[in-house]
Specification:
16 helices, mainly alpha
Amino acid sequence: MKKYTFNQLSLIQYILIIFETQVGIGVLSLPRDLAIAAGTDGWISIVLGSILSTLVSLVVIRIMNKNPESTLFELLSQYFGTMAGKSIYVLWILYTAYAASVVLFSTVNIVKLWIVPDIKESILMILFIIPIYIITKHGIRVIGHFAELVFIISLWMPFLLLYALKDTHWLFLLPIGKEGLSPILSTVKPTVLSFLGFELAFILFPFLKDKKSASKGIIIGNSLSMIVFVIVTVICFVRFSPDEIKDYAYPTLNLLKLIQLPFLERLEIIFLSVYLFTLFMTIIPYLYTAVLGVSELFGKQDHRNMLRIVMCLWLCSSFFFVPSSSQINQMGKSWGTAGAYFAYMFPIFLWIYGWIFHPTRKAQKQ
């Protein structure tokens, strides 16, 4: 990773990239998903999902600590050989490119529904891919700085949601565990998928200046995501009735519609306009991982050519493929299914394989 030393990340940037990649769409839609599956006990599933994602995150860091100067591509080639390593890496590239695409199409759909219903999707796509391209083309260092900027300009948002506690019914949460343990445990699966983003530690770790703090950083990132998810979910649960919340695709935005200020209307539009930066911070790390992966695959140091190709594909697709809300929902589910394999099962498999493989490799060298 010596060729990337000028693009190093600070610990704060590392934490914020993971945190902002995770929250994204989940902040808007997770309360409804949990309410449908587990009722108002869904917030407990968030805590359990956070614990599971943190444990797997530490597995990722443990793997990378054994190979601190290797990229994921180099690591896979060392473990599985050139051909098998490239094949697995191609699957990783496809996964991250698909994740970025799903979030982008979801963002276009949300903005069209809530802010500008009469505008064409292709226009929104152009407006979105311009800042995404500008930030991504400059590499991980600029992405880290952008993550810091997004965090600063988003600090007011939690306080705005707390304002919605004015007319709440805390009895909606009682009794805790009223649906039993089974719904809570069954809801852990969609909850852990809301924490997708920590798997990018495979890519971020080599760029991190203080690699000894990688475990601490990823724990903090997951914990921040858990706190945000719990706060948003609980506020939605106590503001809407258990049946009412199921009717809203994005309960957080419906919650903001209820906030009335004497000097401001349509607060959800202002919120969503600023929240676009956070949604971009879900798209950009996945996109950068995909284009960087293709560049490594072909031995190129410049990822910008591949980035331009992806931008053109996204723009062209907006003229021929306009997914409906139900199609976007299905795309999100398929991303979640892929994420279960790449973010949760893959690190565990790689750790077990490396635990067996390393002694064998050392013995061969000796």
